[in-house]
Predict the 3D structure of the following.
Amino acid sequence: MPEVPGNVVGGTAAPRRPVRRRYAAVPAVVVVLVLAAAPLFLAPFATTTLTRLLVFGLLAVSLDLLVGVTGLPSLGHAAYFGAGAYAAGWVSLHVTPAIPVPLLVGALVGGVAAAATGWVAVRSAGVFFLMLTLAIGEILAQVAQNWDSVTGGANGLAGIPAARLGGEPLLNAGFLYWYVLVVGLLLFAVVWVLARSPFGAALRGIRDNEPRMRAIGYPTTVYKYAAFVAAGTVAGAAGSLLAAQQRLVTPADLGFTTAALALLAVVIGGAGSLWGPVIGAALVVLVRDALGPSLAGHGELLLGVVFVLVVYLLPRGAAGLAGLRPFRRRNP
Amino acid sequence: MSALTCRGVSRSFGALRAVDAVDLTVQPGARHALIGPNGAGKTTLFRVLTGRMRADAGTVHLGDRDVTGLSEVRRCRLGMSQTLQHASLFASMTAAETVALAVRRHGPEGGGDRIVPWPVRRPAVDARTDELLGQVGLGDRAGSSVPSLSHGERKQLEVALALACAPSVLLLDEPAAGMSPAESARLLALLAGLPGEVTVLFVEHDLDLVFDLADHVTVLHLGRVLLSGTPDEVRASDAVREAYLGTARREELFTS
Amino acid sequence: MTGWLAANLISVLNGLAIGALLFVLAVGLSLVFGMMDVLNLAHGALFVTGAYVAAALSAGGPSWGAYLGALGLAAVIGLLAGGALSAMTEPLRRRSHLDQALLTLGVALIVAEVLQIVFGDDPLAVPAPPGLDGSVPLFGAAYPTYRLVIIGIGAALAVAIHVLVERTTLGALVRATVADRDMVAAIGVDNRRVKVAVFALGSLLATVAGVLGGPVYGASVGLDSTVLILALVVVVIGGLGSVRGALVGALLIGQIESLGRALLPDLASFVLFGALALVLVLRPQGLFGSRAGAVV
């Protein structure tokens, strides 16, 4: 299997001796403040759309940990998102919708599902990894489709009660939005720190040159497996937010199309930058949900065209728009 | 006790016996060169020694420990370190980040053996990284990205990366390949200045470098050991001259 | 006892029919994949295109004219689509697998949506041609004749493809390219033409499989990803670029699907994954693969 050349621009390379870190935080703070204030100015419908963007954005961030940081392009990542969503929905229905129980259960089940299926996938490389993750994702989607007694089959898991905080259900779109925002920011921070930790540096080493990492003594398969499980856990948490927001989980949420759209979000946003995929996710959801209705529900047709255009038009292919940034983080 | 030994190592590719029942003993602290004409089996033997490739038969010992069935990763953690023939590094990292990867893996003092590297204190890692970069002459290039380094500098970085693994045995695959004479001279000085307790085994085409650095030379020819001895013995050997000349003649026939 | 045996023999026959269809579908995917490392995610969309062609032509009622016409039209569409896909992936030869996968994924999405726009959301039935739409008595039960026909056609195509790959110049080039692409390029063969030919033939087999499978599976939205996954599992289990591997993998998956659905309907998908995982843990390169897909 030929080595794929390092096709992903290292947006996450942490400067060893940070000089301007203080200023780098300014835009992040502004973005957080704007996001936090958004429901005060937006109509409930727009707030709900923004909530969906955040949920999908978190899924894209978790996928970027695999695709951009570790160099493992997964086509089945929605499986763990969906597993978390079903688990959170089921717990909300049958045990308690009290925060943080569904969130923790969703994250746990996402992680366990990734742990149970990931070992086969991370032992493979290149196009095999694509194929295996695709197959694993689709098989889990079929489980969701057929396991009527737990998942509600093709109709999905309906009637999920609203998440409760301190006994009060979060029925207001704004409160629900803030819940999703807080969890989303928290998990984004976790992934961000993970990608910049020594563990993240090792993952980037594997992305750049796996044989060399083995030669300096890193058991790379174990690291890839750990990244796979971590990404599955975050995706599962994102799934629990989906269950809280939609209050309905269907097999489509863990299917091939969701997985492909998440990958598209990562690719157009810029793999490896972590924040880029959030913007990519926003674009993808807006195209599907905002432009879709004007195309008689065939937003996916447009997305198919976007896929094709992305491959031909982005000069580094999957390196994404982040690779087009006029300046790149470089040490002097 | 020798630092690195192999006994009866064979490896075939289809009908070709690339390495055929090779015995090799590398003494502790040696500067041991592995030479031979093209197709002698040097690279195959090198890969069998590092664990990248499995042998069909034979054993490999690191010190008194049998490492025959162990992976490259395990061998590295037992003190075997290597540089690769084609400078093969990490495109998105700086020189310092590259070396820090190995420092964190093996600990600033060496001998670290952790699955999870993060408890290592950062100042200690940075200090060790700077020390290693200085040792290979890249002290002023710490913040440079790998793609911006020259070919010679990448080879120097390879050596720093290998040294960061705290090796007892260091294997170098054609360290001087593709280097200018000036770069080659700098590399020679660097290798000559390595601590005496580190055992070095290197595959090399540049015979000047071999005879300048090595205290022991093993000549491979057609997958077998032709001669193993001091540089003077090798220089004086008719069999070695014959092997090199014979190949040269054959190559003339093939190319003309 | 005989009842149990008969029921399971029926299941084995069903498995053979599924396996025969899967072989026709997967062998093209496997060869395209083994030859140029292109993961063609539009392969399932080609199958569904064939199924919709069959549904459209037989909308006026079942007839041999409609059935054979659908086979011919699907074959032409398959050839053209294969040629187009080959041309589209050509500029990406030096790019990552992810780029090729994204491209074919985009094509798959476009094709699926266009079919949905043209034919609507509801599943369409495809009738078997007259004379084959009945059933024959078998082990004391009535067994659909058409499924026996599929088994027969699958067997005939397997022999034909085997002869093509093992006995012809094109086949020799294909095998050589699978084994060592660079070597074939180095001896001066322009393997782009081989690539176009294999892509076109592989796509033709996929659309034809769609017509053949029409009377069993019908034509519906979402069928493309289901058959794509089955074909991928077959390719992974059988090994890259191996006709024999595709055949054995397809027959195996056919049996697992059929028996699994009969015995453990809820868990059939787990059984499928279990088989896949088992093969990959024991033989990472697939049952008949020569190139290892996994790194140790």
Remarks:
- Chain A touches chain B through 32 residues (CB under 8 Å).
- The two ends of chain A are 36 Å apart (CA to CA).
- Confidence is low (pLDDT under 50) at residues 1-19, 317-332 of chain A.
- The CA atoms of residues 121 and 132 of chain A lie 6 Å apart.
